[in-house]
């Protein structure tokens, strides 16, 4: 029997699956830190609700460190906790890589089909069986043909899915630059840094260490709402890896 072709070792195993637990939202697992209901997070919740109802596509984009992934995860825990499946790539995946990752995150039994047509038919049948939200995180790594493959699954008459692309870099440019892709995107949401006024209002409730601190000392974090160690008062910095 011929061996089933595998994706490259670095991409064959999915980096994600169902939604992670809330404790994973903060990169350094900062004790006592709170997830704040910023305007961007509230907008994400509303937008994802609309996209799910419409069975549409959504693009969440913006520079790294602004809370895109955290906001999407928090919103989907409220809206579709059991239906969401997440994929995250750390390289330039091929369509074959995407097929294998979907096979894995959907927890399909047996071995992946060898022929592309049979593989696509299997995935479409599964995605038609019940509603799912497919979240592609770090979407800036996707090639144009990878975006097109998600469109191929999305356009099938019988699949029941919503697709959410989350990424920085060229995510917006690639999607918006191709009419066939852009026309499928129901909502575009750009993440931007908090304003100074938003920081001064939000940060006291973000972590108790800020309670009672003179507003003039709160400053402006470089990458809110993921507030880093450099912006914590001396003695309050957590152990572990630094913020990116």
Could you explain the architecture of this structure?
This protein has 244 residues and is of the alpha/beta class. The protein is 39% helix and 12% strand. It has 10 helices and 5 strands, in the order ααβαβααβαβααβαα. Helix 2 crosses helix 3 and helix 4 (95-105) runs parallel beside helix 5 (116-129).
Question: What does the radius of gyration come to?
Answer: 20 Å
Largest sheet: 5 strands, parallel
Sequence of secondary-structure elements: HHEHEHHEHEHHEHH
Enumerate the spans where pLDDT stays under 50 for 5 or more consecutive residues: 1-15, 220-244
Beta-strand residue percentage: 5-15%
Tally of contiguous helical segments = 10
Strand arrangement, major sheet: 2-3-4-1-5
What helical percentage do the residues reach?
Answer: 25-40%
Mean pLDDT: 81
Shape: elongated
Distance between the termini: 47 Å
Keywords:
10 helices, disordered C terminus, alpha/beta, 244 residues, disordered N terminus, 5 strands, 5-stranded parallel β-sheet
Please provide a brief summary of the model:
With 244 residues, the chain is of the alpha/beta class.
